[in-house]
Amino acid sequence: xxxxxxxxxxxxxxxxxxxxxxxxxxxxxxxxxxxxxxxxxxxxxxxxxxxxxxxxxxxxxxxxxxxxxxxxxxxxxxxxxxxxxxxxxxxxxxxxxxxxxxxxxxxxxxxxxxxxxxxxxxxxxxxxxxxxxxxxxxxxxxxxxxxxxxxxxxxxxxxxxxxxxxxxxxxxxxxxxxxxxxxxxxxxxxxxxxxxxxxxxxxxxxxxxxxxxxxxxxxxxxxxxxxxxxxxxxxxxxxxxxxxxxxxx
Amino acid sequence: xxxxxxxxxxxxxxxxxxxxxxxxxxxxxxxxxxxxxxxxxxxxxxxxxxxxxxxxxxxxxxxxxxxxxxxxxxxxxxxxxxxxxxxxxxxxxxxxxxxxxxxxxxxxxxxxxxxxxxxxxxxxxxxxxxxxxxxxxxxxxxxxxxxxxxxxxxxxxxxxxxxxxxxxxxxxxxxxxxxxxxxxxxxxxxxxxxxxxxxxxxxxxxxxxxxxxxxxxxxxxx
Lengths: 249, 222
Prior knowledge:
The complex is a heterodimer.
Chain A: H1 15-37, E1 40-48, E2 59-64, H2 75-86, E3 94-95, H3 97-103, H4 117-124, H5 129-136, E4 138-162, E5 165-186, E6 191-212, H6 219-236, E7 246-248
Parallel strand pairs in A: 2-3, 2-4
Antiparallel strand pairs in A: 1-6, 1-7, 4-5, 5-6
Helix pairs in contact in A: 2-6
Chain B: H1 3-6, H2 8-23, E1 26-30, E2 43-49, H3 53-56, E3 59-63, E4 69-73, H4 75-89, E5 90-95, E6 110-122, E7 131-144, E8 149-162, H5 167-189, H6 194-207, H7 213-217
Parallel strand pairs in B: 1-4, 2-5, 2-6
Antiparallel strand pairs in B: 3-4, 6-7, 7-8
């Protein structure tokens, strides 16, 4: 098809429009840069050494390791894992953590909780303990160890107010690191089934041009999703699971 | 009879209000919790439990620099932690009013008196620290039926809790963890103390000749 002669559809350049386009592109570039700066990197390393698979009627309990002085898996992270395991695709029956600790008191307190499956075996030799565990229906204990910590931060925002108005200028950023290990114990067979390690880093940025615009990463929520997904596979896949790291950008 | 005997709860609130008025800007925490009964085998002795008035009405106050006057009431929590604990730890328990002077009430092998020896807490001011910490130290004094002191045993508990928006809640949670820890140590290590092992041995020997201290202490041994 031939183009029509003498009909040039291109409009002459409009200087005002070019300026708008430049501003538009600059804004998009800035936002893209900030969103790219605000990112999550995730690495999950599952390792399953046993072949146990959860059966119907068997429960899981998620407990935080509390022996460390300077860190401890946060209560809301433990709750997040417990809730997510019990919901969604392939839900698992989860026993409430606090209720389990109360039923087993004083044997799952920070100073008395078994650190190895050998300790667990000694604990079960005590009168009444094994019966109490059986009563809860729990077959697997998921020990959560780790925490979310701020590893870096920088920049700054200045705000001022006057008669004509108020506003802020600047750029602040911070990076949080969520590192958790989930170790699965089979308390019927008294053995460790393996560990899933998750390391999720999240960088948040907050530019301020008149008003602060927060672009916040949530590495802990991401770690909860990743660990839950892996734990579900871990507890439902008999063999051929684990031994390879999973990266997500 | 004192007013505190008539209405201990009202007295506790009165004391807290007085502290608040005196201190002006103050932070008050009333630690309240339900503690579980320990899963341990009872020791084969009958023990009188003497919970002194100061433990029932324990209020800790501290003026923390750069913060405020903190007032922490632990009385109710002490009672709800220690009563089920002792009830489960011994074959038989009953409340008594005094340490035996010469001879214990009939049927008791001894009297146990708990007190708080020390209480400390730390609420972080900076953003680096993210835990509120609480340390509590109980002293358990066990008296034989004739009033002789068997042991003055100090038991510590440590608890921490993430710093939340509400600092009082974080202190309360940390205090509960510390009390649970102390309770765990009391219920699992009581019979391991050499003086108590020996005392249990004497009681068992008196009851059934031939039984030794190890046999009596075995169910609780760590």
